[in-house]
Hints:
46% of the residues lie in helices and 17% in strands. It is an alpha/beta fold and 276 residues long. The protein folds into 2 domains: 187 residues, Rossmann fold, CATH 3.40.50.300; 78 residues, Histidine-containing Protein, Chain: A (2-Layer Sandwich), CATH 3.30.1340.30. The strands form 2 sheets. Strands 2-3-1-4-5 form a 5-stranded parallel sheet. Helix 4 runs antiparallel to helix 8 and helix 5 crosses helix 6. The longest helix is centred in the middle third of the chain and has 23 residues.
Amino acid sequence: MSIITISRGSLSASVMLAEKVSERLKWAVVTREDVLRAAEKYGIKETGLGELSFIEKSPGILDKMGDRKKHYLLCFQTALFDFALKGDFIYNGHLAQFLLTKIPSVVRVLLTAPDEFRISSVMKESGKSRGEAISHIKLTDERRQKWSHFLYGVNWKDPAFYDLVFNIERISIDLAADILADVISSEEFKSGKETEQVLRNLHLASLAKVSLQQSPRTRGSDVEIEADSASGSLTVTGSCPRVGAGMWENDIRTVLSKLEGVKTIKVEKSVVGYYE
């Protein structure tokens, strides 16, 4: 299992690049919309963060939605793992690489171009005037930056977050596709049984967190979960109130024991008082 993620600004070049690479590698192309639909079964609609218009809201409002953000990212990540378990794919969207950091066989791509090239491209693609194209690019950049900062606290344009950065003013989509196909086929990014096991472990841990979030008894539990899908074991680490600690652990065990493939559950809890 290998994955290519493509991030871009206001240009449609990412769609063309994804299609070209798909033709060369015979891989499926997955979009943000595909992942959102797949994540509905995990409750992503409950977060209210799937709508594009949400990122127009002010930073102050965004900052107050930490719990919903965690739930959104968890649902989205779990759905991404679902796609990965089906086989190699190309993700054409925005920032998915931050949810796939523990998987070694992921190539992270950023498409960029000078402002004048972007303005000209938007005018040709959409028929907008120069002023409209400039406004469109400015608004798109502001929205993406606000969204990336809210979700991950990063500047998504930082090249340090990518393995390949293509300036499409100078490198054609066909050449970028050829380079990308060669890179993902190289030894550095080749996946094997170890990578597949890492993915299965991450997927099971993610499913476990989703299950806790979906249950009224355990929703909002602040825990970390490590999974070994081969043995069917889960290790849950978290803090709980001194009063009701036994019930807290029992609820977690009850929910997680219903997951397919889970055989053993280890709970390592830190008990704290109300005023500690």
